[in-house]
């Protein structure tokens, strides 16, 4: 069971990035998934979640509509499209699997991908 | 400032029992399950407790969770040096305008 994030990097304020999370070792299409971020030296912040069939999508209020979560079950992949990036979006971004028997319990995490927003 | 409030730090000596509190409100802890995560330095978080007091397989029974009203606690008994880590509580929030996930600010546990 593994999650591997990619797509992070250095981007200028106002720019965009698309993060990806490749899942393996489990039936991706049956699990809800989350993105969680952690700014340098700070705590965890929940970003977004998407249900197994993409019917239910939620976002943190702080994002103000700038991020879009999506998934491709045929490719076992989760995505996070980040637009209008700001310095405060600088963080390590984790994707995580939701435990099938407990909403919002994240039992498998990736190693994270780093996003740096700076001019 | 997090909506789920944790003490920023806690400490104990090996063998001791320590507790970490997490305070919320009716829209989160009071109406939903609480989860606890352990984050060792430089690593991804690990699920310690789910559904208020359940342990995933592989988590030692030294770790236990409880909840009362709008507050929850994580207890660690028989403290060990490898327990030194950051601990986060989490809960879903049912705020009508925008439901979503919450994490507490985290508690840094030091084993003296």
Distance between the termini of chain B: 28 Å
User: SSE order of chain A, as H and E?
Assistant: EEEEEEEEEEE
Helix content of chain B: under 10%
Mean pLDDT of chain A: 96
Give the helix level of chain A as a range of percent: under 10%
Give the biggest beta sheet of chain B: 6 strands, mixed
SS class of chain B: mainly beta
Q: How widely separated are the two ends of chain A? A: 37 Å
Low-confidence stretches of chain A: none
Please work out how many helical segments of chain A DSSP would assign.
0
What is the helix/strand order of chain B?
EEEEEEEEE
Strand content of chain A: over 45%
Task: Tell me the layout of helices and strands.
The complex is a heterodimer of chains A (119) and B (112).
Chain A: E1 2-6, E2 9-11, E3 17-24, E4 33-38, E5 44-50, E6 57-59, E7 67-72, E8 77-82, E9 91-98, E10 106-109, E11 113-117
Parallel strand pairs in A: 2-11
Antiparallel strand pairs in A: 1-3, 3-8, 4-5, 4-9, 5-6, 7-8, 9-10, 9-11
Chain B: E1 9-12, E2 18-23, E3 34-39, E4 46-49, E5 63-68, E6 71-76, E7 85-93, E8 100-103, E9 107-111
Parallel strand pairs in B: 1-9
Antiparallel strand pairs in B: 2-6, 3-4, 3-7, 5-6, 7-8, 7-9
Notable characteristics:
heterodimer; A: 119 residues; mainly beta; 7-stranded mixed β-sheet; 4-stranded antiparallel β-sheet; 0% helix; globular; B: 112 residues; 6-stranded mixed β-sheet; 3-stranded antiparallel β-sheet
Structure description:
The complex is a heterodimer of chains A (119) and B (112). Chain A has strands at 2-6, 9-11, 17-24, 33-38, 44-50, 57-59, 67-72, 77-82, 91-98, 106-109, 113-117. In chain A, the strands form two sheets. In chain A, strands 2, 4, 5, 6, 9, 10 and 11 form a seven-stranded mixed beta sheet that branches. In chain A, strands 1-3-8-7 form a four-stranded antiparallel beta sheet, with no helix packed on it. Chain A has 119 residues and is an all-beta fold. Helix content of chain A is 0%, strand content 51%. Chain A contains no helices and eleven strands. Chain B is mostly beta strands and 112 residues long. Chain B is 0% helix and 45% strand. Chain B has no helices and nine strands. Chain B has strands at 9-12, 18-23, 34-39, 46-49, 63-68, 71-76, 85-93, 100-103, 107-111. In chain B, strands 1, 3, 4, 7, 8 and 9 form a six-stranded mixed beta sheet that branches. Chain B has a three-stranded antiparallel beta sheet with strand order 2-6-5, with no helix packed on it. The mean pLDDT of chain B is 95. Chain A binds chain B through residues 34, 36, 43-46, 49, 58-61, 94, 99, 102-107, 109-112, and chain B through 2, 32-33, 35, 37, 39, 44-47, 50-51, 54, 56, 86, 88, 90-92, 97-106.
């Amino acid at each position: 069971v593994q999650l591997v994030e990619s797509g992070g990097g250095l981007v200028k304020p106002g720019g965009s990035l698309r993060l990806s999370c490749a899942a393996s070792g489990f039936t991706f299409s049956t699990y809800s998934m989350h993105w969680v971020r952690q700014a340098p030296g700070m705590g965890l912040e929940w970003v977004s979640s998407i249900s197994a069939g993409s019917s239910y999508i939620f976002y943190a209020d702080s994002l103000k509509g700038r991020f879009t979560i999506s998934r491709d079950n045929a490719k076992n992949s989760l995505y996070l499209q980040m637009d209008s990036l700001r310095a405060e979006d600088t963080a390590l971004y984790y994707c995580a699997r939701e435990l099938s028997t407990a909403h919002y319990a994240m039992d498998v995490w990736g190693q994270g991908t780093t996003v740096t927003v700076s001019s | 400032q997090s909506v789920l409030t944790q003490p920023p730090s806690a400490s104990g000596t090996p063998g001791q029992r320590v507790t970490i509190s997490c305070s919320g409100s009716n829209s989160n802890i009071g109406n939903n399950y609480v989860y606890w995560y352990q984050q060792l330095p430089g690593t991804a978080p690990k699920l310690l407790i789910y559904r208020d007091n359940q342990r995933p397989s592989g988590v030692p029974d030294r770790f236990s969770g409880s909840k009362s009203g709008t507050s929850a606690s994580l207890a660690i008994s028989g403290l060990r040096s490898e327990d030194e880590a950051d601990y986060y509580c989490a809960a879903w929030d049912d705020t009508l305008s925008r439901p979503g996930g919450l994490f507490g600010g985290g508690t840094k546990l030091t084993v003296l």
